[in-house]
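User: I want to check something. If I give you two sequences, will you return the structure for each one separately, not as a complex?

Assistant: Yes, each is folded on its own. Here is the first sequence with its structure:
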Amino acid sequence: MLVGKTFYLRGGYLDDSLSFNEHGTLSGHSPVGSFTLNLIEIDKVRITKHKVELDGARFGQHFLGALPSEDPAGAVDRVRITPKKKVVKITIDREIVVKPKKVKGKDRSAKAGQKAALASSEGDTAAEPAELSDADQAKAEIAAASPEERPVDAGSVTTTTSPAHAAMVLKQALDNIFASGLDARMMAAMPEFWRLYYRAAAAGTDFRPADAAVMSGDAVDRKAKLINDIEAPSNEYAQQCGVAGMALYHAVIGADGKPEEVAVARPIGFGLDENAVEAIRTAKFEPAMKNGRPVPELLDLVVEFRIYSKRTSAGAGTDTAGKPSTAPLPGPYSVQHP
């Protein structure tokens, strides 16, 4: 099911060591990030009685500048984020299979009589030990296991007498942790600006504002104007992997000059689009004018991301020394390697 395949990590967890309980809920805490930073390729699977251990590598998605109408799925590079000789480790607890309790009533009495007769014939008069409860069986099994074999969240592990049920619980946990593609649950967890992008892609069209009263640039007397520069920060993953270029976004600028709907038009990926949209939402604009009054307008906005000589997650405008990179950048969606 897993080895050699690539999945989205639901939840966007960015730690390289992740532990989940038997239901696929994260144990502990992890920083989270964009789905474009959360492709996991599984290399190894180790299954024990109490847990499943996965080794893999994280990949980022670098979009190559396709509009939604140009099949964005076909214009994406996968870039390995996990350094060589390093792995992403994921551990999933398993439901514990315990021995079924002995039958009651006549069957139990009959079996007890058989055991008593056998013990008498063998000269053994010792009493049969008390039967352990499921919880006690589980505790005993966990206590007997070596520390590295024990479940991460032993207190929440449930028991079953059915190996089939334990297998079903594990499959459900895997489905709660991984997605083989951008399914409905992945889409529902995305920010609205990504949902608008993929909705347009599914329809084979470009973004259209929800409000039909929003005007285009050729329908107004004066276009909306950006007052301050949009400086979206890069991030450590993009800096380390040399992901740079320009991304395009649609933004509805309301009659009050404030950004309303924002949608990705030509994404760049690697978690940078989230930074760009946040920068757009906090930017200041003068509204468009029509017949002497302000009106909402749909603007196209370009945001550029650069690679800096000192690889940090500093803002797009300056590096840690407060000076912009002077190295020339190639065209949009290009990669500049050190």
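And separately, the second sequence with its own structure:
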Amino acid sequence: MTHTGTQALKIRAYSGERIVMAPTPLTPGRVFDLPECAVLTRIEAVYQTESLAAASKSEAAGPGPCAGEACIYLRITTTDGCVWIRSGAPDVVRVELRLQGETVTMTLEQPDATKVAKASDSGGRNPREAKQAAARKRLDELRRKGMNIPYDPKVEGPPRSAPEKADGKDKGQSWHGTTYDALLGSDRPVFNARVNRASGCVTKPEEIFTYRARLASSKGKVAEGPPVECVGDACRDLEYGPEEIAACHLVNRGRREIAVGIAQSGKGEVSIRASVAPGRAMRLMQIMGCLRAQDIGRIEARYK
């Protein structure tokens, strides 16, 4: 048997209902000899899940999975010890974030280039202030060399002892800015908002177990697709709606690990199995790509 894909597989072989080969990892590009036995009646091949070490490293790098049509426009970053959401969506975005013990809802404004504060240097000064600062620096150097140059507020700006003027924008919570778009070869506007919880700002992306993002113009519409049946005691904690399936994953929104099995349409037996930790997602992948709602005949979800 030769593995021609790009992900490691776990292979299980049956003779009748008897397992003649336990789940064995098969890495891409490798050949595996099947065991000698009477007759092989069935071979199962599923994508191998990440190791605990790899999963922990991956989970620590970012938030949990996102569901909703606006996810592709969002980016979660960390600045000054707080987590921020950056939106480049062509619309207002409604976001719901599930944290430990609470749910945070946010409204992200549509990015607007006319609301971006103009600045010509890293200090956030406008062009006039930047020009005055450069003149003041140059004249101060001449004064230190002994030249008697009187202070000129028109050239150097207000005295440094005077309080700086506020720009009227509270950048501590949200602000309009720009980011460079390599495809366009230019800057495009984005809206930035800090993620706050009752006790203060969220400090690590991994504190976000899962989140959902919808465009305001969608007015509650979700991805189309036939309803999928779920059986088992853990179905209430498993997100398996049209949005999640369209995003190619199922999400465990509970507090316990869930064993998930998927029987594809037209097949009575479960062919895909995975274990999903709390706040994490299971990818709905098969050899030909993501499973669609019409490809799923039944989902089984039980607490481990």
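Because they were folded independently, the notes below concern the second chain alone. The radius of gyration is 28 Å. The helical segments are 52-60, 127-144, 153-156, 242-246.
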